[in-house]
Amino acid sequence: MDVYKIKGGKRLQGTIKVSGAKNSAVALIPASILADSMVTIDGLPEISDVHTLQALLEDIGGKVNFENGQMTIDPSEMISMPLPNGNVKKLRASYYLMGAMLGRFKHAVIGLPGGCHLGPRPIDQHIKGFEALGAKVTNEHGAIYLRAEELRGAKIYLDVVSVGATINIMLAAVLAKGRTTIENAAKEPEIIDVATLLSNMGANIKGAGTNVIRIEGVEKLHGTRHTIIPDRIEAGTFMIMAAAAGDGVTIDNVIPFHVEALTAKLREMGVNVVEEDERIFIPKTEKLQAVDVKTLVYPGFPTDLQQPFSVLLTQAIGSSIITDTVYSARFKQIDEISRMNADGRIEGRSAILSGPTKLQAATVVASDLRAGAALVLAGLLAEGETEVQEIQHIERGYSSLIEKLQGIGADIRKVSVSEEAIVRD
Ligand SMILES: CC(=O)N[C@H]1[C@@H](OP(=O)(O)OP(=O)(O)OC[C@H]2O[C@@H](n3ccc(=O)[nH]c3=O)[C@H](O)[C@@H]2O)O[C@H](CO)[C@@H](O)[C@@H]1O
Ligand SMILES: C=C(OP(=O)(O)O)C(=O)O
Q1: Can you list the domains of the chain with their CATH numbers?
Q2: HAMAP family from the entry (predicted)?
Q3: Which residue in 38, 148, 307, 351 has its CB near the most CB atoms, within 10 A?
Q4: Angle ∠(334,337,342) on CA atoms, nearest 5
């Protein structure tokens, strides 16, 4: 089993480059199912979610090549094979296979998705959307069966603002007959990225990035070439690391507008965030002030940055409250950083953190992707050598994290340890 070993206390300095966005990648790849010829996506991150989706597309007959961040997908010979288990469970975004396969084949059998355990993550709004378009959807033994004679456009009001449901309904609706309107749609940049790919494939989509999306169904979609947007959550993670442990760090390949909520919070804490066209520079911060933070749907403060941000708050002067309004149980990092001497506790949907605290190294477990990023940051700050276990969660979403952090001066390495050698403090 692989673990990360981090010797804390090294200051970070230099330039770190952000990869393509995980949450776009995992939707763009399934979207290719809807085309009748080759789709090329450039700038994809080297993460396990992308490799898993490649395998899933190959399972249904896709011819896929992935090299140097470029994926070419020939979907012409795909068939609607049932995908009830296995790889489907390895990631959350396998739910996009439902919308894309329903759109193309009008029937699909897909297992319930996996992904990070953050509290309940229902997909009722996805299913409500598919049903409104005319599909019959049943859950049989943990797999979702979707069948439609034909898909017809409909007006769908989402009860909950959901990234996944918004994209999934777009995927199912682009080849449906007539007009689909998604109201109370999510507005994340990744939704615009997916709509851009679909539009370049010949789809007719208006309003992506606003809360009303209108789709006029078309007869067929063709192949295209697309470059993915940068990962705003990876960028935000590096910004937080730079604020906590940096002596001048440039984050390259970021759209500053996409991380504005984080930038505003960092500035409130006393961090100087210097925005350029596609770069952000964060000089050394002398003193961090406590702040309160509430996660919200985009353009609010992203829930995906809440966990790394909680570690930054352990370095701030005073008491901070961080509330996650999106996921009720996304605080598994708090127990782990408490074992590293952090002063933190959970109250309902909030974590209360006081600082500044000198963190101490420990052996800790990454329960999920962003908890993992939080623990890496804690390790960078802690006195001694921290071991982070269960790093497969981290590698679902961070491309070449070790190499990137080494490039700005971190003492971090990936080590293979035998199962017997695994210990908890
Ligand atoms: C692959 C991907 O893009 N993952 C992101 C996506 O997850 P995901 O698409 O799963 O998240 P959603 O936007 O759907 O979830 C938002 C909220 O709505 C609830 N909900 C969602 C769907 C539904 O049918 N019913 C329902 O009640 C969820 O439990 C959650 O409380 O957005 C989340 C919120 O920004 C991010 O944390 C994830 O990184
Ligand atoms: C929660 C996340 O991912 P997923 O939805 O893929 O589990 C995340 O990226 O922080």
Answers
A1: 2-19+230-421 (3.65.10.10), 22-227 (3.65.10.10)
A2: MurA
A3: 307
A4: 100
Is pLDDT of 422 > 90? no
Residues in contact with 276: Cβ distance below 8 Å, sequence separation at least 6, in sequence order: 256
Pocket of ligand 2 (CB under 6 A): 22, 91-93, 115-116, 304, 369-370, 397
92 alpha carbon – ligand 2 mean position (Å): 7
Q: Give the Cα separation of 340 and 334 in Å (integer).
A: 10
| pLDDT given for residue 366 in this prediction | 98
Q: In this model, does residue 425 exceed pLDDT 70?
A: no
Residues comprising the binding site for phosphoenolpyruvate?
22-23
Evaluate the omega torsion of the peptide bond into residue 283 and state whether it is cis, within 30 degrees of 0. Answer: no
Identify the residue whose C-alpha is closest to ligand 2 atom 1. 116
Question: Does residue 116 carry a catalytic annotation?
Answer: yes
- Measured CA distances, 249 to 53, 338, 356 (Å): 33, 27, 22
Is the ipTM of this structure higher than 0.95?
A: yes
Options 110, 116, 135, 371, the catalytic residue:
116
Count of C-beta atoms within a 10 Å radius of residue 343: 15
